[in-house]
Amino acid sequence: MTQNKRDHSLNLAPASIDDYRELARRKLPRQLFDYIDGGAFGESTLAANRDDLHRIQFRQRVLRDVSTRSLSTTVLGEELALPVILAPVGFGGMFARRAEVQAAKAAEHAGIPFCESTLSICGLEEVAAAVKRPVWFQLYVMKDRSYAEDLMARAQAVGCTTLVLTVGPPVGRSTLPRRTKRRQRPDCASETVASRRRSLHPHQVGPRRSPSAVDR
Ligand SMILES: Cc1cc2nc3c(=O)[nH]c(=O)nc-3n(C[C@H](O)[C@H](O)[C@H](O)COP(=O)(O)O)c2cc1C
C-alpha cells in the first residue's frame, strides 16, 4: 500500500495519542468528534492540562536489570496491571457499536478497571454481564435523590465494587464544549438511565432518541 493510500484510509497504525485522535476525526461525524475533542468554554483548562502533561517526561534509565518489570499497582484495594483506569465517558456508545461493552472488555483484557458513566449508552447490566472483572460506576447526583439511589442499587446488584462520585458540574452546561450547535453533547438515549421515562441528563439535553448514530 502506498503512503498516499494509507493517508486517505483509516488503515493507520496508531503510534501516539495524536494518531488515535486523527483516526477518530476521520471516522466520526463532526458533531461526535467535536464532543470528544473539545473542552469547556474557552478550552483554557484543556490547554493548561495539555501543557502540564507535555512537561512530564519519562526518566530514561540505562544499564539496569530489566528482566523483571512490572507496572502493576493497587488502587482502592484493587490490583491493576497498569496505573490506568478507563475514565467515565458519557455517550460512549455513540462513537462505536456497543462501545461501553467493548471498552469494558478491553480494560479487562489489559487488567485495568473500566468505569461506566451515568450517561453511558449501554446499560450497566449489559456491560457488567460482558466481563468478569467488576465494573466501576460513576454517579452524577441529581436533584431526585431517589433516582441516584436506584442507580446505586443497580450498580450494586451487578457487582460494581467502586462508586465514583462526580461533583464537577455544579452549574448546568459547565462541562459542555463550546461553539454552539456543532459542539453540543450528542442528543441521544442512555440505557443506564432508560429505566426512567423522562430525560435525566444533568445538562438538560433533549428527550430520548435513537440509541446510537453508529448503529444506524
Ligand atoms: C467526551 C467526554 C465525556 C466525559 N463524560 C464524563 C461522564 O459522563 N462522567 C464523568 O464523571 N466524567 C466524564 N468525563 C470526564 C472524564 O472521565 C475525565 O475525568 C476527564 O476527561 C479528565 O481526564 P483526562 O484529562 O484524561 O481527559 C468526560 C470527558 C470527556 C472528554
Key features of this structure:
216 residues; three-stranded parallel beta sheet; 33% helix; globular; binds flavin mononucleotide
What does this structure look like?
This protein has 216 residues and is mainly alpha-helical. The chain has eight helices and five strands. The protein has helices at 3-7, 17-27, 30-37, 44-55, 99-110, 124-130, 145-157, 180-183, and strands spanning 73-75, 78-80, 115-116, 136-140, 163-166. The strands form two sheets. Strands 3-4-5 form a three-stranded parallel sheet, with helices on one face. Helix 5 packs parallel to helix 6 (124-130). Mean pLDDT is 81; it is low at 1-5, 173-178 and 195-216. The structure holds flavin mononucleotide (FMN). Flavin mononucleotide (FMN) binds next to helix 3.
Q: In summary, what is this structure?
A:
It is built from 8 helices and 5 strands; from the N terminus they run ααααββαβαβαβα. It is mainly alpha-helical and 216 residues long. Strand 3 (115-116), helix 6 and strand 4 (136-140) form a beta-alpha-beta unit.
Question: What is the strand and helix layout of this fold?
Answer:
Layout: H1 3-7, H2 17-27, H3 30-37, H4 44-55, E1 73-75, E2 78-80, H5 99-110, E3 115-116, H6 124-130, E4 136-140, H7 145-157, E5 163-166, H8 180-183
Parallel strand pairs: 3-4, 4-5
Antiparallel strand pairs: 1-2
Helix pairs in contact: 5-6
Strand order of the largest sheet: 3-4-5
Helical residue percent band: 25-40%
How many helix segments? 8
The radius of gyration over CA amounts to: 19 Å
Provide mean pLDDT, rounded. Answer: 81
Q: Catalogue the unreliable spans.
A: 1-5, 173-178, 195-216
Give me the strand/helix succession. HHHHEEHEHEHEH
Question: Strand-residue fraction?
Answer: 5-15%
Number of extended strands:
5
State the distance separating the first and last CA atoms.
Answer: 31 Å
